[in-house]
Amino acid sequence: MTSIKSFLVSLLLATAALAGAPALAVPTVITFDSGDPIGGLGEGAVLANQYAGYGVTFAPNAFTGPGVSGANWATNTNMSIANSSGGNVGGLGNPALVSGNLLHSFSGWLGEDGHPSFSAFFSTGINFFSADFAGVSVAANVRILAYQGATLLGTVVGATSGQFNLAFASSVLFDRIVILPGGFDDWVGVDNITFNQAALPPAGVPEPATMALLALGLAGVAFARRRHGK
User: Fold this and answer.
1) What architecture does CATH give domain 25-198?
2) Could you tell me the pTM of the whole model?
């Protein structure tokens, strides 16, 4: 009887631990095309809160005041969607790393009044973020900065002109990314935004695996009580 009780206690403790553990990180990829979580954004759309249901919202002008290379940060960072096969983009690589719809139109870039910057805000902490950049002339002006609240956790900087992917990963969850898509004199397109966000079950609703273990534990308790009562 003691061995049965020990087994049941261990099982229930494991069940309780599982119930409190977060699910595995779920990758989300935003391509602005029909295959992404919301079915993409049409050409000319302005990126903002369309992906809020997937835990991320976007806002222009992450920085203000003096910028780099003698120019201020833009007050009108372009957040519009353009099509890579149209005339409203700059030069892309061959073969292009980005395709279909992408962020940052060429005409919008021409109207910016400084170095562009924008933020991605996450409703739940993430541990990985990446994006593809194309049309880059000055690699060092393309960056991603990861924040936890107001704390800067790290910065990743472009190392080559043309096109490339930048990624940041951390064991410490972060809730904001700032993207610098090139400088005042350099059009850069952004595409394939990817992040890992912890997926938690709705409050008060255990996951299926937790429910199965709990049911097994309760059945074991009932069986042990019946044997003890005989």
Assistant:
1) Sandwich (2.60)
2) 0.76
